[in-house]
């Protein structure tokens, strides 16, 4: 059912894209609990979620293909939104644009294939997954988990203590401005992480590069490993940490004046173990062939 | 029967002395050699496949996989949903990536590798349903993992007792499984399965 | 059945050389010679006979593959034990398979296996049980150092731990064992 208001919103949303005559414009609202769980599933297009002060979920959906269907089920505690496309034709290119406003304390979970996802102003727990879409979000204090196959991801925070978990096969994941525990894992994607005062950092890659800037708390535990990517850890001074680093065939570099040595006179591998400052934090970094660099600037 | 003196706990040195007298050899309850011999034989049969998987061939496989997928998208008929599904299945099977093969020095037990089999079945199914570029990315990254497994295995030949290498090996295997399970769960956002 | 040669360095070196060239019969001779020690190690480190059997097999299969890398720098039995330790540790870290290995918890609750494995009446069952009851880190060092006689440095290398950590674990092992054995009397 097209109304003028819907058309205006749709036009504003898709200023660049001509509206196909068969597009569907849909609005849904539901009253929900302040900490309800919202699940959104979309294939192609866009998922845009913003937190607001009302205990309501408001959805505006534009489905380019008139054969696609929108499912919207709402109870007080849970809202489920799903775009069901008529076919699997990835070359067809018909998008579904979902714009949502949800209570800012709600929990959000999104899943897309190639649709891009943007979340902002949501204080509740976030679980954002995509195959190839880009995922962007803001982190506050509640946990955020981001997972993609090839999509890039970006999480920005304003110093909240959200525990952030990211996983990607080949996407570039950027995280900044958070101070909760961080856990990141990539195969060939890269991790670019900027953390405030943190206690736990865990980063793993196969061939992707890992670049972490962090302010380590007194009892921080940092563990990073890679097969062939490079690992770079830059810590805010003063650095008080014990370093335990080993590489089978990569270089271990540092700016603390320490020199890596051979692990054994007879065998391969080099290692570098030392305490900087008064110790306290513990940093463990391992690689097969990737180079390791630790520094305080 | 115990050789520990009654009434008092043993002195520290005495503990170690007693421990050193424990039998170092314990015969296993059954003869393990037949099973070992069978695995050695299976290994030499399987070896040609593993040694035929150097990086160049992995890249060649990727090219073959991508072109098979492109062929599929070109021949599909827009209004024949059934034939498209059949083509999708065929493309998925043609391009079905082999699981990562872990080399002779890599101590991943048979039990752990079996855990992968179940996941692989669903993975191949789902892989065929992904957009072509994503499929290519997945295949490419599995080749990256294969390369990592090969590098670790070569290193293990030189230093089999290395905790570092075994840790990286286990991590690599976990990443392989992660790819499969990501692809499998990505199907949840897909359409026709409500 | 293969007639075992005397446990003689040159005989074993010959066997190893032939096994390296792919002589499975020679490798079987090595298996017969060393399986007791490998199984004994795996059994005491895991506390679970079925798992120990699997890991013993894995160790020999792995050793066969790694033979080209055995350069004779260490004794063959030590090299084999290194592979066994690695195999046990890898299994501990790995996702649990068919044989769920429940390690002793820090309270020292144990599985009663070792009593069944006692070779004869002279075996101090209490001692084996006490070792089996140790938490994994302490048990590893007690097994390698206490039973198998590896030095602190050698054991540390096999377990990929610092020597200091090994000594601390040994100390802990002794304390726990003393407490347990004292309590049982």
Structure notes:
- The complex is a heterotrimer of chains A (297), B (194) and C (185).
- Chain A is mostly beta strands.
- Chain A folds into two domains: 1-103, no CATH class; 125-297, no CATH class.
- Chain A has one helix spanning 4-13, and strands at 24-31, 37-42, 45-52, 56-63, 69-74, 78-84, 96-103, 107-112, 116-120, 126-130, 135-139, 144-148, 153-157, 164-168, 173-178, 182-186, 191-205, 210-226, 231-235, 241-247, 252-254, 261-262, 270-276, 281-287, 292-295.
- Chain A has a 25-stranded mixed β-sheet that branches.
- In chain A, strand 5 and strand 6 form a beta hairpin.
- Chain A is elongated.
- Mean pLDDT of chain A is 90; it is low at 16-20.
- With 194 residues, chain B is mostly helical.
- Chain B is built from seven helices and no strands.
- Chain B has helices at residues 12-20, 33-51, 55-75, 81-94, 110-127, 132-158, 163-186.
- In chain B, helix 3 (55-75) packs antiparallel against helix 4, helix 5 runs parallel beside helix 7 (163-186) and helix 6 packs antiparallel against helix 7 (163-186).
- Chain B is elongated, with a radius of gyration of 25 Å.
- Chain C is mainly α and 185 residues long.
- Chain C has nine helices and no strands.
- In chain C, helix 3 (49-66) crosses helix 4 and helix 6 crosses helix 9.
- Classes of the chains: A mainly beta (297), B mainly alpha (194), C mainly alpha (185).
- Chains in contact: A-B, B-C.
- At the A-B interface, strand 6 of A face helix 4, helix 6 and helix 7 of B.
- Mean pLDDT value of chain C: 78
What is the average of the pLDDT values of chain B?
70
Q: What is the domain total for the residues of chain C?
A: 2
Uncertain residue ranges of chain B: 1-9, 47-94
Q: How many angstroms does the end-to-end distance of chain B come to?
A: 66 Å
């Amino acid at each position: 059912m097209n109304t003028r208001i819907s058309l205006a919103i749709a036009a504003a949303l898709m200023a660049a894209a001509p509206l196909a005559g068969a597009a569907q414009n849909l609005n849904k609202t539901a009253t929900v609990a302040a900490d309800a769980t919202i699940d959104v599933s979309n294939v192609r297009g866009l998922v845009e979620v913003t937190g607001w002060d009302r205990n309501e979920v408001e959805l505006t959906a534009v489905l380019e293909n008139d054969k696609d269907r929108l499912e919207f089920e709402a109870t007080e505690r849970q809202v489920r939104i799903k775009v069901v496309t008529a076919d699997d034709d990835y070359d067809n290119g018909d998008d579904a644009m979902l714009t949502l406003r949800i209570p800012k304390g709600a929990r959000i979970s999104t899943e897309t294939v190639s649709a891009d996802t943007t979340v902002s102003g949501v204080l509740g727990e976030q679980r954002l997954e995509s195959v190839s879409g880009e995922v962007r979000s803001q982190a506050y204090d509640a946990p955020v988990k981001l997972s993609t196959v090839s999509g890039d991801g970006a999480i920005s925070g304003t110093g909240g203590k959200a525990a952030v978990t990211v996983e990607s096969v080949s996407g570039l994941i950027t995280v900044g401005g958070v101070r909760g525990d961080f856990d990141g894992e990539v195969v060939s994607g890269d991790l670019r992480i900027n953390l405030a005062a943190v206690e736990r950092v865990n980063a793993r890659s196969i061939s992707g590069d890992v670049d972490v800037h962090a302010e380590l708390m007194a009892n921080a535990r940092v563990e990073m490993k890679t097969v062939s990517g490079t690992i770079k850890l830059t810590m805010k001074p003063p650095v008080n940490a014990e370093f335990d680093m080993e590489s089978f065939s990569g270089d271990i570099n540092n700016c603390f004046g320490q020199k890596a040595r051979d692990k054994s006179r007879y065998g391969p591998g080099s290692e570098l173990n030392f305490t900087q400052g008064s110790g306290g934090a513990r940093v463990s970094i391992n690689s097969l062939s990737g180079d390791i660099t630790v520094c305080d600037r | 029967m115990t050789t520990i003196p009654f009434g008092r706990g043993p002195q520290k040195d005495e503990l170690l002395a007693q421990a050193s007298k424990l039998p170092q050899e314990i015969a296993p309850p059954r003869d393990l050699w037949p099973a070992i011999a069978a695995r050695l034989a299976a290994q030499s049969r399987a070896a040609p496949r593993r040694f035929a998987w150097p990086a160049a061939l992995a890249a060649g496989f990727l090219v073959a996989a991508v072109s098979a997928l492109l062929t599929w998208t070109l021949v599909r008929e827009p209004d024949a949903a059934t034939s498209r599904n059949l083509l999708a299945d065929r493309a998925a099977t043609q391009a079905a990536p082999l699981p990562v093969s872990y080399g002779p020095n890599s101590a991943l037990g048979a039990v752990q590798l079996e855990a992968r089999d179940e996941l692989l079945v669903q993975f191949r199914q789902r892989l065929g349903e992904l957009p072509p570029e994503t499929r290519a990315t997945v295949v490419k990254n599995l080749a990256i993992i294969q390369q990592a497994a090969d590098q670790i295995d070569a290193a293990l030949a030189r230093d089999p007792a290395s905790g570092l290498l075994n840790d990286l090996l286990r991590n690599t295997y976990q990443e392989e499984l992660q790819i499969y399970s990501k692809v499998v769960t990505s199907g949840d956002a897909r359409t026709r399965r409500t | 059945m293969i007639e075992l040669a005397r446990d003689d360095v040159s005989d074993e070196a010959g066997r190893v050389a032939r096994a390296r060239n792919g002589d499975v019969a020679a490798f079987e001779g090595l298996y017969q010679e060393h399986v007791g020690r490998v199984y004994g190690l795996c059994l005491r480190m895991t506390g679970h006979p079925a798992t120990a059997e699997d890991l013993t097999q894995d160790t020999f299969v792995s050793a066969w593959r790694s033979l080209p890398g055995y350069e004779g720098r260490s004794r063959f039995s030590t090299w084999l034990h290194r592979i066994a330790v690695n195999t046990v540790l890898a299994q501990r870290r790995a996702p649990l398979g068919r044989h769920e290995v429940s390690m002793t918890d820090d309270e020292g609750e144990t599985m009663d296996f070792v009593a069944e494995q006692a070779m004869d009446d002279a075996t101090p069952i209490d001692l084996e049980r006490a070792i089996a009851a140790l938490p994994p880190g302490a048990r590893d060092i007690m097994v390698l150092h206490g039973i198998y006689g590896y030095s602190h440095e050698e054991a540390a290398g096999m377990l990929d731990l610092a020597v200091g950590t090994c000594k601390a674990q040994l100390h802990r092992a002794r304390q726990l064992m003393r407490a347990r054995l004292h309590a049982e009397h």
